[in-house]
Amino acid sequence: MEDRETIIGLEIHCQLNTKSKMFCGCSTDFRDNEPNTHTCPVCLGLPGSMPMVNKRAIEFALKVGKALNCTIREESEFSRKNYFYPDLNKAYQITQYDKPLAEWGKLLIDGDNGEKEVKITRIHLEEDPGRSVHMGTTDRGKYTLVDYNRAGIPLIEIVTEPDLRSPKEARKFLNKLRATLEYLNVFDSEKEGSLRVDANISIKGSERVEVKNISSYKGVEKALTFEVTRQRNLLRRGQPIARETRHFVETRGITTSSRSKEEENDYRYFPEPDLLPLRVSSWVESIELPELPDARRERFIRQYGVSAEHAKTLTGGLKLAEFYESVAPADPALAATWTADYLLGELNYRDFTIDAMPEDLFRELIKLIKSNAITDKSAVEILRIILDEVKEGKGPEHPQAIVDRLGLAKSSEDLVMKMVEEVVAEQPAAVADYYAGKMQALNFLVGQVMKKCRGRADPGHLNTLLKELLDKKV
Amino acid sequence: MAKILSFTPDDSVHAFLTTIPEVTYGEGPLSGVTVAVKDNISTKGIETTCASKILKGYIPPYDAHVVALLKDAGAAIVGKTNMDEFGMGTTTENSAFGPTLNPLDKNRVPGGSSGGSAAAVASGLCDVAIGSDTGGSIRCPAAFCGIVGLKPTYGRVSRYGLIAYANSLEQIGPMARDVKTLSRLYSVIAGHDPRDATTVNKPYSHEPSANIEGLKIGIVEEFFGEGVNPRVAEVVKEALATLESLGAVVKSYTMPSMKYALSAYYVTCTSEASSNLARFDGVRYGPGLDSAKSWHDAYSEQRKEGFGKEVRRRIILGTFSLAAGYYGRYYQKAQTARQMVRDDFERIFRDVDVIAGPTMPDIAFRLGEKSDPLQMYLADILTVPANLAGVPAISVPCGKIDSMPVGLQIIGKYFDDEKIIDTAFAFEQEGV
Amino acid sequence: MVTAEDVRKVAKLADVGIDDSEIAEFTRQCSGVLEYFEILDTLDQNQQLYRERYNILREDEVTPSLSQEESLQNAGQTEKGFFKAPRVM
Ligand SMILES: [Zn+2]
Predict the structure, then answer these.
(1) pLDDT digits (tens, 9 = 90+) for B66-76
(2) Letter string b/e over residues C38-66, b meaning 16 or more CB atoms within 10 A of that residue's CB
(3) Which residue of A189, A368, A432, B431 has the fewest C-beta atoms within 10 A of its own C-beta?
């Protein structure tokens, strides 16, 4: 039972960052706006209004299709998906059904067992529904509030083959996909709800369960891990797995059963009569793709001499890669280490994106480290201070100002030498041990000096100084 | 300079659902021409109901493209006309607000679904009217009321603002007492609209010509076959003889796809309608929902109360046609049949300039005469082929039976609306 | 042809609300019409409707939206700028 394979396929909805909506001229820049202010007869579904396809949405979807090595259909078309829900403005969603824009693609990922090709079944275009807010507490007092600002935002749905074998692999796929979409500049990963995932998951030989409503890509691994455990537990107890749709409850990290498949709607798809077919396969040749994550990773290794591991990390997001390139000139190796190994950890801890770190301050910090003016320990402290100040909404201090304020500059050589001499005088027993050949004694003495200078000296350097002094005395 | 016209008609036939007592209008080719607009065409600030309870009180915040064009041309929009609810009918009896009567015989229907528009024009309450034609809804009432009505080539007039019943079939078109006036009105409403993807840039600026010397007219045998009142057939044949006397040449054809046409039409229009009419959920417009109920209960109830029986029947039929297990048998095959109708027209139009025949199989029915839905649907058999193919068709009065008018239908090639207008004009000039 | 059960199911799918008292009438009428439609199923090919025009698109340009007041003007019930609808859960 335990060794039965986990099979995962994903459906990813991604909002395209066009200026206007998919089928009308309303602005897509609706976040932080009053409800129902980015609405018109078309996206309110008023009687008599008609859709008109946004050309840029097609171009963006084609870009994604090309980047994911898809075949673009000679002729594709829009269909209506009929279902009734208050936030669905026309009581049907305009989407693509049997003639999607792009098919048969692939994306290379760093899988559980090395590099892996994940097949893309299809990419199609559709419109986002509006947003429902569920109100009221008592059963009869409940009602729904609807805002159609989001209705009609262009989406692409990317469907994968069931090629993923673990929740971790699913996360890695999504990270790679997200980076690719960012590099293509068709999507804004920082906008809430701009990437939403549904997952199909099964244990080989058992029924498939669809998990919907995973609204953050970070939630995917959590939701899938829960689901794998739930399904394996059922099997272990000899219970069947129901073919059903489940919802991910992000706050509780669990999935709950919604209605079962047989109750699900018959969507009665048919071609949208108000729109004409698309024949855009020839457009693909003229689309120039930007440098994508894999190419950038190779270039980082070549151009900056960074390790393969660092290169992968640093190219994992467009803004991160751009950040690195802006701070690299000071010292590519040092900048790579400090970005990938220290800065990212501190950012994640605070739930920050790379935008939180001002490039000029980080560049200054790298220079201080490079010139040996501060210890690594102090550098980390400065990093934390800057990010905490950002968090509090204060304008962050310059690293040099922090060094001056807290006296973090490495102690001067004279001062250090004085402390070394003091320690040698204060610790005759340890000195005797050193002469007796006990090398741990030297470490003890280094520790004592560090204590005296409150860590502001380089332990390696102290080691040398102590050795020179003691060996001279012999 | 805006001018004002007062409009207080003696509407004894119930042609209007809404009238505008004080109409402002401007300069332009239709300055001061009184126009009635079918109530399924959106008019900013004027209630637009599609003759349905579900849209009672709905005030569109925008004008349909044709309404904007009419206003720009100086037309005086005097009111909104009665119709079969959402365009679903052939008699205007299916209006939630009561039927319109035929001005020529108040015991008879005016035809439908643009019955209000036809009755308003025929009774002289206004100069011209705008209707919409999904399967004959302009031509049928034109024939029954003795006026001229044109269903333009699909794509020649913008549908933006026309409350959709069956998008792939319907067109907005002009209705008038004579061909020349109809032509003037048509020249204002035809043309490309960037908001309707199905429109083409083919404006209309034609002056009707009565010279039809050498015109080749096709006669389709099926248009005179079973179900067509022989007296109607006879009147139409006389009209064809008149056209021959004017220099036209007549030739006979068969159209095997006619066998499938009515089914293809009803499957397509009910399928599209079942989807189009789902949006009337009472959230964004229409009477508010009872929020003590759950969504699906409130939604079902709203639609049961708000839609008439024929509308619900067509929604159910359309849902059947699209549902899993039926789609392949109905919707998909209807598209096959539709293509066959197009192919038949294309074949005949390789030989001839226009096709002519009766508009309706009979004269105007008596009120309440047809109660069985299928019997009612059969009355559309001669008008639906033009909608299935998207070609233009006009109905022009060509005689009378028992003092009720008969319509001559002239069908043209794609975007050759000019030719059928000329043919109708030539016939009209000859007088009846 | 179609049974009362079929009609009930489709009416539910269509969400048009149907009374028990109406079922018999709707079943009889729908049966008659659907039977008439059966002629379509004698066609064997499934030809797609040919559409000669394609790629009718608009540029990605922002045009003015309605105001919130205009958007909500026809709504039965509103609250704080939202449309109000029954509970869906
Ligand atoms: Zn809009």
Answers:
(1) 999 999 999 99
(2) eebeebeeeeeeeeeeeebbbebebeebb
(3) B431
Chain A residues touching C58 at Cβ < 8 A: 25, 52-55
Structure tokens at A10: 């994903």
With beta carbons less than 8 A apart as the criterion, state whether B147 and B173 touch: no
Regarding whether A186 and A60 lie in a shared domain, the answer is yes
Q: Provide the terminal-to-terminal Cα distance of chain B, rounded to the nearest Å.
A: 41
Residue type, B379: A
Taking 70 as the threshold, does the pLDDT of residue A75 lie above it?
A: yes
A189, A330: one domain: no
For residue A49, the CA-to-ligand 1 centroid distance in Å is 10
- Long-range contacts (CB closer than 8 Å, 24 or more residues apart) made by A327-332: A327/A359, A327/A362, A327/A363, A327/A366, A328/A304, A330/A363, A330/A366, A330/A367, A330/A370, A331/A366, A331/A370, A332/A304, A332/A305, A332/A306
The predicted-structure confidence for B262-302, as pLDDT tens digits, reads as follows 999 999 999 999 999 999 999 999 877 777 788 888 999 99
A367 and A423 in a single domain? The answer is no
Higher-scoring residue by pLDDT: B104, A207: B104
| B38 belongs to the catalytic site | yes
| Residue from A234, B332, A460 nearest C49 by CA | B332
Residues linked to residue A54 through DSSP beta bridges, in sequence order: C58
Residues A71 and A149 in one domain: yes
Chain A interface includes C44 (CB < 8 A): no
Average pLDDT, chain A: 91
Rounded to whole angstroms, the Cα distance separating A357 from B216 reads 80
Per-residue tokens: B351: 């030989």
Is A86 within 8 Å of chain B by CB? yes
Cα A193 to ligand 1 centre (Å):
19
pLDDT recorded at residue A260: 47
Structure-token pair, residue B188: 């204002």
Do residue A36 and residue C51 have CB atoms under 8 angstroms apart? Answer: no
What fold does the segment set B14-432 form as a domain? Amidase signature (AS) enzymes (3.90.1300)
Residues A316 and A463 in one domain: no
Residue A234 burial (C-beta neighbours within 10 Å; 0-12, 13-18, 19+)? middle
* B172: helix, strand or coil: strand
Higher pLDDT: B48 or C15? It is B48
Domain identity same for A341 and A393: yes
- Residue whose C-alpha is closest to residue B75's, from B126, B121, B112: B126
B12 is catalytic: no
Q: A422 lies in which domain range?
A: 412-473
Contact between C47 and C36 (Cβ < 8 Å): no
Task: Name which of A25, A34, A85 is nearest C88 (Cβ-Cβ).
Answer: A85
Query: Are residue A358 and residue A435 in the same domain, yes or no?
Result: no
